[in-house]
Amino acid sequence: MINKFFNIAGPCQPDIHYMVNPLPRLSGVTELIDRREYFILHAPRQTGKTTYLYALMHQLNQKGKYTALQVNIQEAASGTSPEKAMKIAAGAIYFQAEKYLPPDERPENTAEIGQEEFEKGHSLRGYLKRWCQNNPKPVVLFIDEADSLMDDLFLTLLRQLRSGFEGRPQSFPQSVALVGLRDIRDYKIRIRPEKESMGTGSPFNVKSKSFFMGGFTFEETCGLLDEHKKESGQAFSTEIQKEIFRLSAGQPWLTNALANQIVFEILKNDCTKEITHDHVIQAKELLIQRRDTHLDSLIDKLNEAKIKPLAEAIISGNAPEFDSLNDSVAYARDLGLIAPDPPVRFANPIYQEIIPRVLSFGFQEMLPQDIVQPQWYIKENRLDMDALLTAFQKFYRRHSESWLKKYSFRETGRQLLLMAFLQRIINSGGRIEREMAAGNGRCDLWIEYGGEEHILELKLYHDQFTREDGLEQIARYMDQMGVPVGNLIIFETRSGISWEDRVCREEIASDGKQIILWGM
């Protein structure tokens, strides 16, 4: 009987969840608390922020020097005015204190404070002041989901924390952490929707440091997976651990979700079975198809003004508009959508797989069944890539102009249309992996079917060097993957070029490699 499992919903609870010790994931936090500092902790959703806060709260309370409390104030976003929002936030503080603190360390019950009386007491500032003055220990407060408050509500929270700052620790919390998705410098706060942005940091210029919580290291990933072996005897081998880390890039929710999918969904908690590489690939595909809340929340961001051009640049390989790049990249990294280091690319292979598939879903659904029947291109479990690309070239010539006119991601529509065509056929028993990054000038596809590998490079025509660059790039990719035959697809982007001049198929021999150039 397995008593623990991999967590895919909410903060971890040590008695039922496999987990690694969250406290070593951030260093220097307790030193800031001892120095009475206010600070920021930000990270993408489901990376372990709340799990870390609970662990730190319990550790500080057990040591007995501080009264530490973690509180989620997301409910305060429903406040119809700043004053009401602050009372809701105070109520959340009391509710948590009732659960985790002894009676002599709790603040007053907000249910016994009328709204008018609460406002006269300077709202949240007065509430925190009275709590600290009546508490036998200095108060340490971790405010989770702080950035769920918008505009004037968020501004009110910052101002009240700032105004009480000089009273710490006797009359205000010794240390406060604001916790959310973004660093406070990245917020453009508006007093009202019709007014201009007032800028970022001045209402909370007392913060001393911003911490960013990234994903698991490989060692932490192995530590998490080894917890299952300790509990059940069923091991994730070193090779399987490496593959899970490669697919997730250490993203905590993805790591847990892949492991949970294998152990619980695929193997049905049968710990006598060996975990294989095929199980990992199956788990990845099931996660992509199921699109759990974590994945859906990222997909919802793709149409945002800051994210859409960046996503298009990654898929197409083009360079985005540089004027708005700084803010867009910072925002996308805070969301966990792109990798934390250059080049600008999706954060891990699973995001890199699901995002193009979601964006091309409409194309997949509407492709006529008679041209994407797998039996036209798969004979004796072998994929005829030449026949497939010939059929797509014919379809593209006849339908691409009318289809792409109706598509909002027009900058990447050509590549996504081909990906949709491939996906409908490869779904019958193969897999596709993509390599893409903004500014690299291409999108590379690796396809495995029936034990055979196929390579495609997708490029948009930019100038007279497109063909030369494409041939050099696909030759390098073929060397990297050890595949002797590759397909280079160049999509024409110039207006006024006839289809007779655009459509071509050309075989090119180069250093023992065979490159097939397709003009679209």
Largest sheet strand order: 8-9-10-11-13-12
How much of the sequence lies in strands comes to 5-15%
Mean pLDDT: 91
Largest sheet: 6 strands, mixed
The value of Rg in angstroms is 27 Å
Cα distance, first to last residue?
Answer: 58 Å
Helical content class: 40-55%
Structural class of the secondary elements?
alpha/beta
Unreliably modeled segments? 189-202
General shape? elongated
How many separate helices? 19
How many distinct beta strands?
13
Characterise this structure.
With 520 residues, the protein is an alpha/beta fold. Helices cover 43% and strands 15% of the residues. It has helices spanning 29-34, 49-63, 82-100, 115-120, 123-134, 151-164, 218-232, 238-248, 252-266, 277-290, 293-299, 308-316, 325-335, 349-359, 361-366, 385-404, 413-426, 466-481, 499-502; strands spanning 38-42, 67-72, 139-144, 175-180, 207-212, 378-379, 382-383, 431-436, 443-449, 452-460, 485-491, 504-510, 513-519. The chain has a six-stranded mixed beta sheet with strand order 8-9-10-11-13-12, sandwiched between helices. Helix 3 (82-100) packs parallel to helix 5, helix 5 runs parallel beside helix 6 and helix 9 packs across helix 10. The longest helix is centred in the C-terminal third of the chain and has 20 residues, at 385-404. The chain is elongated. The chain starts with 28 loop residues before the first helix and ends with a strand. Mean pLDDT is 91; it is low at 189-202.
